[in-house]
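Lecture notes, structural biology module. Today: joint structure prediction for complexes of two components.
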Amino acid sequence: TQLLEQSPQFLSIQEGENLTVYCNSSSVFSSLQWYRQEPGEGPVLLVTVVTGGEVKKLKRLTFQFGDARKDSSLHITAAQPGDTGLYLCAGLYSSASKIIFGSGTRLSIRP
Amino acid sequence: GAGVSQSPSNKVTEKGKDVELRCDPISGHTALYWYRQRLGQGLEFLIYFQGNSAPDKSGLPSDRFSAERTGESVSTLTIQRTQQEDSAVYLCASSLGAGLAGEFYEQYFGPGTRLTVT
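The predicted structure, tokenised, for the full assembly:
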């Protein structure tokens, strides 16, 4: 059974601080996506990473895919209240044609 | 353009009743997914449809759960004899493909149906 573990589960920090959240598995992904979900809405795609070691930047957000394609991280610089939400990673296991979502990191940014 | 829509947005039902949840995907999207999200949790995969292929039902938690899709359009998720443990938000998503060729397509999610079983 493929599992995606995200850490931390909850994170509350002050506006302006930096943070990193993680997504880990014992299995190898073909590719991985990060989504953000706000209350009462469905998740929205932030990024897709495909190549081991790949780094993608989206304004203040930096996404990294591990060299072995088993893990990923999301780093936010100078967090803002608008970054508040549930961050979900999703891995594609093409060998099984399955998409697995992690349990999420709930992020709260205090003004 | 229109996104994924789901109805109803909220459903309160008594334990033991059947419920039907509806999803209208984005036109032209061949893949459609159903997920369950319990309060404060991540997404639990239930079922997905890809074109005319047999659906992947591996995530359905019991035989009380079933889903159908008409061609590449609307889908309904049916829960029979609802239990309190079924209370959750049920999310539907559609995408251009389903990653069978190793491509990871973006999933577009609807706003969900919040199901409460009393």
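Point to remember: The CA atoms of residues 98 and 104 of chain B lie 7 Å apart.
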